[in-house]
Amino acid sequence: MLQSPARAGITLGVQNGLRVEHLPEVARQAEALGYTELWSEEAGGGDAVTGLAAAAVTTRSVGLGTGIIPVFGRAPAVVAMEAASLQLLSGGRFRLGLGASTPTIATSWRGEAYERPLERLVEYVDVVRRLLAGEKVTHHGQVHLDGYRLQLPAPLPPVPPVYLAALGERALTLAGRHADGVILGNMTPRGVAQSVETVRNAAADSGRTPEAVDIIGRVTVLVEEDLDLARATVGRIAGFYLSTDVYRRSLTRQGFGAEVDRFAATWDGGERAAAVEQLSDEILNAFAVFGDEQTVTRGIARFREAGLQAPILYPIVQGATPADGDGAVERLVAVASRLRAS
After folding, report:
1. Signal peptide: which range, if any (predicted)?
2. Which pTM was predicted?
3. How confident is the model at residue 3 (pLDDT cuts 50, 70, 90)?
């Protein structure tokens, strides 16, 4: 194994044929490879907390973070309890990642109206921080509590830092003003550099030390020498995201306005395969860095150069399914091992 002093994380979730029972072993092996942090995910499969709880007792030094818990569908008191438990269980290695999520997850899947998401996010952070600090909290706004205090047997060692997922300029500005860290995702290196500037400026404008805000980002990676196969795989991912207005706006801000407009006209006209086929490799790289190992390694380096303090890798293992059993762990770890020096 090649050792690197640079921070690097890996996604801990039920992707690539992994099942929940595999996550403790993935966490153990990722730590042994030298990964410095593990970040969970939560959308429609496994939750963000369970795998980290298992990782907390099978690892000793690696950082652990939720990447992310949506602020819709979970009361802040519940998240505070989960965060406190993970911080105690891990001996102080936990970071709480929160985000506004999407209308589909909030409303269609969790039954809450997706209203004023950024306002809710700011209130949520304030309430959770006060609860983790031991305060008795009453709050009536986007979230509601009446005289609740987190009942802990001992003080936290210390209160875990709060990270916010951010994509648009308003969310990035809020994160720079209020968060200990920012989680980026689905951006090109150019988009990362723009986002880093927005976050740093917002921190400075609010009287904070800009460099004190930790900026990390999820980087999906696909090591695949068959470029046609790789493009087809990443194209499916890109099509899924670019079918939504939020990612069309994001890629437009990153300088791909004309290409996004062509995609939208073709996709919305019903020619979905044609819409994906016309996407450039540069815009595809916002959704996954792909190619042979050397190409992927260089791609990860470009994200570091753009300002990511820790890329959180999300490896794609082609053809993996839950039927792979324990072999899914071996295949994921093999990819993670090849990329750790990036």
Report:
1. none
2. 0.94
3. very low
